[in-house]
User: What shape does this take?
Amino acid sequence: MKIAISSLENNENSKVSDRFARTEYFVIYDHEALSFTSIENTAKSAGSGAGGKAVKILGDLGIDIVLVPELGPKALEALEAFEIKSYQYPREKTVREVLYLYFEKKLPELLISTSKGRH
Amino acid sequence: MKIAILSGKGGTGKTTLSVNLFSYLNKATLIDTDVEEPNSHLFLKGETIKEEGVFKKYPLVNDDLCNYCGKCSDFCNFNAIIPAKKKVLVFQDLCHDCGGCALVCPTDAISYIDKEIGKIIYKQIDKNKLFLYGNLTVGEISGVKIIETLKKSTQNEELLLIDSPPGTSCSTVAAIDGADYCIICAEPTPFGLSDMKMVVELLRADNQNFGVVVNKSNLGNDDIFKYLENEKIELLERIKFDREFASILADGKLLINHSEYFKNKMANIARKVLGDKYDQ
Assistant: This one.
């Protein structure tokens, strides 16, 4: 199982981002290997449709779960189509902290979009 | 002859100038290409003679033919098409209708279907005056296609006035494309001058002939006049601000019917740009 977290920097001790699709980095936790990796988010600079593009990047990496601050309707639709579940974290935490919260089942699953989406 | 009226800054008087110049001339066609917020029609009384839809195409993917190669998605600059696990996502409102995804699809899985994005309304104002305006449906991403359709529908008109959208982006570029002359309607404020400079840059890059009408010329400061002199740009006319004008406009009335001053200004502009052929 792989979990991606929207992050301001490229490691597990960094603060989580307050954007999903236009975050700086995704930190990826591999629960089988118990290891962290990260990728720079190339969807960040998309002129439009960053939500769908970010989800495609994560889907192609075989991500199963994303931890996010909020989601627009297109990102949510794309996550469903890639069969990726999403959970909402509170602001101002670190990647490691929100991951603990996820495993403690303290993060709500997102089933409807939380923002209208932005251009 | 095609004359575009544009401004950069909103609220300088494009529509006021357009509808009054149009009404002053003895024969002309006017199109309102500010399809996001059209309002020339509020000043022009006439019978609606036709309404037609404007459509854009967006991709429809045949799942039986698609092999999920992702070439469409790599090609699309707007992320409007994304192959997921068991279906291809199409975000209609992000699609710019370029046709690229079908071109790059190796299995011919993509066809296109029409979506109405707005309307064009035709009004006969009097026997020598035709007026068209476009109206973009709320939520649609671009009015360029409606503007292009407005232009195409009126391409053979003898004298066409084009009331353009504000700004200097795609809509404005589409509105002024193919014009023989552009009239910048400016105002002598810091904001008016700043935005007008962008318009001048656009028109020069597009090799357009143009002149400037300074509206509300007794407000603001002199910077705009110094700028026009330094840049050797023709000042076509100055039109003063008058509270009475604002009051007439607020009633939805044409200034040329209520102000000799304003009517004379329209006559001067018409003569400078068109000669005397279209005089009343």
User: Anything to note?
Assistant: Chain A has one domain: 2-103. The mean pLDDT of chain A is 94. The interface with chain B takes residues 43, 46-50, 52-53, 55-56, 59, 74, 77-78, 81-83 of chain A (CB under 8 Å).
